[in-house]
Amino acid sequence: MLRVGLTGGIGSGKSTVADIFRVLGIPVFDADAATRQLMEADESLIASITKEFGEEAYSNKKLNRKYLASIVFNDVYRLEKLNAITHPAVINAAQVWMQQQKTAYVIKEAALMFESASAAGVDLVVGVFAPQHIRIKRVMDRDAVSRQDVLARIDKQIDEGIKMKLCDHILVNDEQQLLIPQVLHLHEKFIGQANK
């Protein structure tokens, strides 16, 4: 089975691309969703997060996302601490999930594919690229946040140009080029590679 990573900066359209792959019958592991689930279900993660960020990190056994975001998005060191706690658990969950799949290939969607060292667990990586001004507008509209908030999040990820250079394939989601034909092309390519 071919293991394909899917990444891109915030607002690039990774989730849209993942949804297209799902429609094609390809299983997708959503690392962000898995992280949220594990942060509320994995007792050792909960204990580590509480120890590092205090009792306020949880409220009624639910992760206090607003509180945690207010800390980690304003302090690179604290963000790195949170990532060091969560990334190993998510990487392990992805590996277990991949072993359970029966398709020619699978997709692991992760915004921090390279930052978290998740790329080591896949055979190749697809990057979703969108110009920064489009990404900013998408996130402002989607999350009802300010331009400064979006730029702060972008600053926490590696440079988009560097990220795309690290990818094996790039899908351009610039609202000029059609996205579905690009995904279909890769789908056929991955099916062919998996069947070799």
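(ticket continues) Second input and output from the same batch:
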Amino acid sequence: MTLVAGIDSSTQSCKVVIRDADTGALIRSGRAPHPDGTECDPNNWWRALQIAIDDAGGFSDVDAISVAAQQHGMVTLDIDGNVVRPAILWNDTRSSKTGEDLVNELGGGKAWADAVGSVPVAAFTITKLRWLAENEKENAARVEAVVLPHDWLTWKLSGSNDISTITTDRSDASGTGYWSPRDGAYRMDLLKMAFGRELLVPKVLEPTEIGSRSSRDQPLGPGAGDNAGAALGVGARAGDMIVSIGTSGTVFTVAEVPAADPTGNVAGFADCTGRFLPLVCTLNAARILDAMCRILGVDYARLSELAISAPAGCDGLVLVPYFEGERTPNRPDATGAVHGMNLKNSTPAHMARAAIEGILSGLGAGIDALIAQGASASRILLVGGGAQSEAIKRIAPSVFGLPVIVPPAGEYVADGAARQSAWILEPGAQPPAWNIEGEEMFTGTYTPSVRERYQEVSEMVANKL
């Protein structure tokens, strides 16, 4: 039996899966937590990876390894490969103003969309580089290379100390703001515009290219950004719209042509198969469920029971879940709001459902934005930790207006990395076909008024009511 390993180094934790390369059968797995916050010393990721590998029974019998990880995080290295400062993560909004400055300096959203397929916001690596150059000049002066979380972890697995050997893949490179999915090339002029000088950047590997090998001589795959890893792991096909509810909320689909949305609502990313991955990301997703459980003093199961018992539309109650600002639409300084409360709807059940309808309505707007960019949607694939909420599964069809398919609980980002590991062992036109068993389908009556009311209230929140 040929075994392959996939790693998901996410915002909150590190997950490892080891699968049969031929069938995709899960052999064993492991995990370890990451520190909370919006910046992190990358060495914490490395320590967590070692714990997760040990928890999974080690890699001694594994034939190939690939790493997927959270996108955008800025890892800065000096000439000797030392980390200059803690990595600033995707969900850190301190660079929102520098993002606006960069957009204006290049001539607006259309110029950016034409150049790199996306309009930079605080999440993007390029805005963090500008923030570093302006606010931490001593640290900025030490920086020789800028890489992403999965790049750094793959490099660490290789055992190299040479920063010139660091590699990345198309999907993660496309989230930096200085690599063009359309052209398949870095825009070093944009990096220089942001940081003030050029930096060493990782070589971008092709989908099945082996850029390095582990200390055990196992081939290391190109890796992936987390959303591209999930698309590969879930086996997304034409007409599938993937909605992931994790720390962030994302909506994305596999496309044959690159996207270029001048509004910035759709990020024109690449995927890890040679295609493209237009994507909409919201900052507020599963953590809203955590917050609502605290507010109501209930667990997840009871939260679902309450939400399902309330009527669609919550009798006019709307919760806009901008608890951490918002990325799409770009409202980094916004806060959450509850609107339309009255004596009838001031119940725990209405609050629970309003929170879930708020999360789903924000993601529904992302579906609309992707369709406006030419994507098609015949069904929703719902993944991520939030997809295990019974209320989310049952309410989603009425908010999205499409059938919702929920694969069995799993680590689909890590699975995508494992599938890539199998692919590099036997490169072909397509990755190996692994079947997913145990999918559930949910349908419901589409209630467009829920999203219409949410849109109205969210605009009021943006305009400070």
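Agent notes: The first strand starts at residue 3 and ends at 9. DSSP finds 15 helices and 24 strands in the chain. Closing as not reproducible unless the customer responds.
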